[in-house]
Structure formats: structure tokens, C-alpha cells
Automatic annotation (TrEMBL):
Keyword line: Zinc
Superkingdom of the organism of origin: Bacteria
Protein name, as recorded: PIG-L family deacetylase
Gene3D superfamilies: LmbE-like
Matching InterPro entries: GlcNAc_PI_deacetylase-related, LmbE-like_dom_sf
């Protein structure tokens, strides 16, 4: 029986970019991956109206998840307005209770985006809430490991202490799937996300002694995602 990993991002596309190669690797090794976006990310296009871009983002998130063999979910919060209260955390906690992930991947706690920081806060709070005996029909569940993904927008104080080898097959699956997202192709504000994260994997591979790797901050040592 494989493991279940839940990747929690602030917007649709965040975990696709940062954790996507690792999720693709895990799926190819027989694990189950769920991508949860806390907001639609619908305000991230300079020329497309938010309502239209919201529909596009959901379709892109669904297609990416399908492309790497993962599952996709999105909470009903608006881009730029993610709360960090217990109501939002409880929604995530209920997903944790139901799906019982051994591993949660989320943002680093410092970011230029408030939604990223709040997603990290919510992930930690949801982990705690899910472990409590509160009478949920799904019971309680303790997440063994939280990992913080490497994101250029979340760089303050981020020093990886875990490197995960990304085989060629996982990288190719990720690259093919991420091409379906307009912002990743540079069609919103021009940043070459795919090139950046491809180069980052090569750089981290140099540090890890492999061709490619993804770097994470491991929040504790209760369990470990196998590195290179």
C-alpha cells in the first residue's frame, strides 16, 4: 500500500510548480497525490477578467493533476483574500481526516504573497485539528511529516534540509503537464517559471549528487520522504 501526500498551495498552480515533480515521482512509485489549492488564483492575469480566469485556472489545475496522475481540489476562497482562521483550517483538517495523508507539503512560512504565508499557517493548524478527537465521521488522523517546498517567492530564510531525487520520467511528466498552465508558460507577467524551476532542479541535483532534485525544509523528523 502506497503513501498519500497532500500538497496545499495558496493558489491554483503553486504546488504544481514547486511540489509537482516530487508528486509525479511519488505517483510513479505507487503513491497517491492530492493537490489542494486554497484560492483560485483568479486575479493573477493582467488582461483576463477574474471570473473568466477563475474558470481557466480550475481547468488548468484539473488538467495538471490528471497529467501527473494526481487528484485536484480547490477551496472556495478568492485570490488575495485567504483567511487564516479556524473555519478555513477546519476545512483542510476535514480533508486530512478523510484522506489520511502521511505527508503534507505546503509553502514556506515567509513569502512575498500573503496567501502563501496563510496557506502554510492553515496547513499547520489543520494538521493539529485533524489529530484531535472531535467526533468527525472520518475519525482523527495524525500527519507524520510536513515539508515546505522551494518557491522563489517564499525565499526568505528558506534553507533546504531534504533533497528528493527527480528521475527523468517524473521530470518529463511534470514538464508536459505544467505546459498547460498559462502563467507557468510566462503568459501573465512574463516570468519564465518552467525554465526557472527546471534550472532549480538541476542546481539542487548538483548539491544532492543526482541529475535533478527538489529541495524542501523538513519541519520535523517524525517520518521521512525518501531522498536520493
Amino acid at each position: 500500500m502506497g503513501r498519500t501526500v497532500l500538497a496545499i498551495g495558496g493558489h491554483i498552480g503553486d504546488m504544481d510548480l514547486t511540489a509537482g515533480p516530487t508528486l509525479a515521482k511519488m505517483v510513479q512509485e505507487g503513491d497517491r497525490a492530492i493537490i489542494l489549492a486554497c484560492t483560485y488564483g483568479e486575479r493573477g492575469h493582467p488582461t483576463v477578467a477574474p471570473e473568466e480566469y477563475r474558470t481557466q485556472k480550475v481547468a488548468e489545475g484539473e488538467a495538471f493533476a490528471a497529467g501527473i496522475g494526481a487528484e485536484f481540489r480547490v477551496l472556495d476562497y478568492s485570490d488575495g483574500f485567504l483567511p487564516d482562521d479556524d473555519s478555513a483550517a477546519e476545512q483542510i483538517a476535514d480533508i486530512i481526516r478523510q484522506e489520511k495523508p502521511e505527508i503534507v507539503i505546503t509553502h514556506w512560512k515567509h513569502s512575498i504573497h500573503r496567501d502563501h504565508e496563510r496557506a502554510a499557517i492553515l496547513a499547520e493548524r489543520a494538521r493539529f485539528l485533524a489529530s484531535l478527537p472531535v467526533g468527525s465521521p472520518y475519525g482523527r488522523h495524525g500527519v507524520s511529516q510536513i515539508l515546505h517546498a522551494d518557491n522563489w517567492e517564499d525565499a526568505e530564510g528558506f534553507v533546504p534540509n531534504l533533497y528528493v531525487d527527480i528521475p527523468d520520467a517524473a521530470y518529463e511528466a511534470w514538464r508536459a503537464a505544467i505546459q498547460g498552465q498559462a502563467f507557468a508558460r510566462g503568459e501573465t507577467y512574463g516570468f519564465r517559471y518552467i525554465d526557472y524551476y527546471s534550472a532549480l532542479m538541476l542546481a539542487k541535483g548538483c548539491l544532492a549528487g543526482t541529475t535533478r532534485a527538489c529541495g524542501f525544509v523538513r519541519a520535523n523528523d517524525h517520518a521521512e520522504l525518501a531522498g536520493p
